[in-house]
Write a structure and sequence with these properties.
Elements: H1 17-23, E1 28-32, E2 35-40, H2 44-53, E3 55-59, E4 64-69, H3 73-80, E5 93-99, E6 105-115, E7 118-123, H4 128-134, E8 141-144, E9 149-155, H5 159-165, E10 179-184, E11 187-192, E12 201-207, H6 211-218, E13 227-229, H7 232-242, H8 285-293, E14 298-305, E15 315-317, E16 323-333, E17 338-346, E18 355-364, E19 367-378
Parallel strand pairs: 3-13
Antiparallel strand pairs: 1-2, 3-9, 4-7, 4-8, 5-6, 6-7, 9-12, 10-11, 11-12, 14-17, 14-19, 15-16, 15-18, 16-17, 18-19
């Protein structure tokens, strides 16, 4: 794969591009970390339906991947992130966030433990400088290995069954948030039971030269099981249903925000469960201890919205029509038959069951119709089927 920059080809192509280009009938592409990724292959609703009923395949190669190697690998990551990772085991994955010294979130991601001297962090945004600066004084090396690993998310209720049909041995016994090495159609791959869909699913990590073989394998049984490639639009739908937040959508990274009031701390994002204030010093701990004692002035919550018109970008009001927040992500959920969203609300409307109102502007035949929709504050995790956590997984 030639990743050299050219003005005639400003976006990089992933090792799967030969196949994603063939499948992308709409020629609708999205820029992710300098790579060309399909936004929509043919029809977003069909791609979403595949992930919720059979399985969908997403090219997630542009994710940033950082190897942390050395005697202080675990000690360093424990200092970097808000969660206690000192007890992480080989083959385990943890969901993590990290903050700046003020306690504002920089990014979230996952950390894979290969052994006590080798961890790997996966995230959506570039963090090499932050990691390298934080590593000063630790016996570790931080290396960006993003370009050396191709990756697919294989998400949906039939994902385990299809991997089982492909003779990926013992895949059904892989626990959620664990990973292992497997053989897939003669290729050595690493498979983790992780994903951004909130359903049963896996992420497959392989060498660049094995990418096409791995991609083709996942579609081998399409005569009986309709697996579809899925783009970023469909991923946005399933991640909202699952209650997963997205940097630069639901919050601005503290490293990218231009103004301090645009930053968010973990408690405002509803991610206080990832903050262990009892562990040893970590970046941002001092301010997070103070923030924990203070009353939140705003918080990201789930919203169940009246009607079927998506409320993304809508302003939120109380019953007296006082502005109290804004919607960051929203959709009509085909699976839940409900109009759902994430939104920031003020301190008086954070409790489950609180009532607020969304001012929705919906386009109808070149005109925007104003809709005043009642909303109920609910948990952000709208979709969480039992099969997501079941071991052994359904095959």
């Amino acid at each position: 794969m030639n990743n050299s920059f050219s003005f005639t080809k400003p976006l990089l192509e992933t090792p799967f591009h030969e196949r994603t280009y063939e499948a992308c009938y709409n020629n609708d592409w999205y820029r992710w970390a300098g790579y060309k990724i399909a936004r929509e292959y043919s029809n977003t609703e069909l791609e979403y339906t595949a992930m919720r009923n059979t399985a969908g395949v997403l090219d997630i190669t542009p994710m940033h991947k950082y190897d942390i190697k050395g005697a202080d690998a675990i000690k360093f990551v424990d200092k970097l992130v808000t969660r206690n990772v000192t007890e992480i085991k080989s083959g385990q994955v943890m969901y993590i966030i990290w903050c700046n010294e003020d306690g504002n979130v920089i990014d979230d991601g996952t950390v894979f433990c290969f052994d006590s001297n080798h961890l790997r962090i996966f995230c959506a945004e570039r963090n090499l400088n932050w990691f390298s600066d934080t590593a000063i004084g630790f016996d570790v090396e931080v290396e960006d290995v993003s370009d050396t690993i191709a990756a697919l998310a294989f998400q949906g209720p039939l994902s385990c069954k299809i991997l089982n049909l492909l003779n990926v041995k013992n895949i059904e016994n892989l626990k959620p948030f664990y990973f292992d090495d497997f053989d897939l159609n003669g290729c050595k791959v690493t498979i983790s039971r992780t994903g951004f869909s909130g359903d049963l699913g896996y992420e497959i990590w392989c060498k660049n030269e094995d990418a096409i073989s791995v991609w083709d394998s996942l579609f081998k049984f399409n005569r009986d099981y309709k697996v579809l490639p899925a783009g970023m639009n469909a991923l946005e739908m399933v991640r909202v249903e699952a209650g997963f937040i997205q940097p630069n959508a639901d919050f601005m990274s503290a490293e990218q925000a231009l103004r301090p009031n645009r930053m968010r701390n973990p408690f405002e994002l509803g991610m206080g469960w990832l903050v262990d204030l009892n562990k040893n010093y970590f970046t941002g701990k001092k301010n997070l201890v103070d923030l924990k004692k203070k009353t939140l002035t705003k918080k990201l919550v789930g919203l169940d919205i009246q009607g079927d018109k998506p409320a993304i970008g809508s302003v939120l009001y109380d019953k007296n029509k006082k502005e109290i927040g804004i919607v960051t992500a929203g959709m009509w959920s085909p699976s839940l038959k409900s109009n759902i969203a994430f939104g920031y609300v003020d301190k008086d409307h954070m409790k489950i069951g609180s009532k607020v109102f969304a001012e929705i502007y919906h386009p109808e035949e070149l005109e925007y119709k104003k809709i005043w929709a009642e909303c109920s504050v609910v948990k952000k995790q709208f979709f969480n089927p039992p099969r997501r956590h079941k071991v052994p997984a359904e095959i």
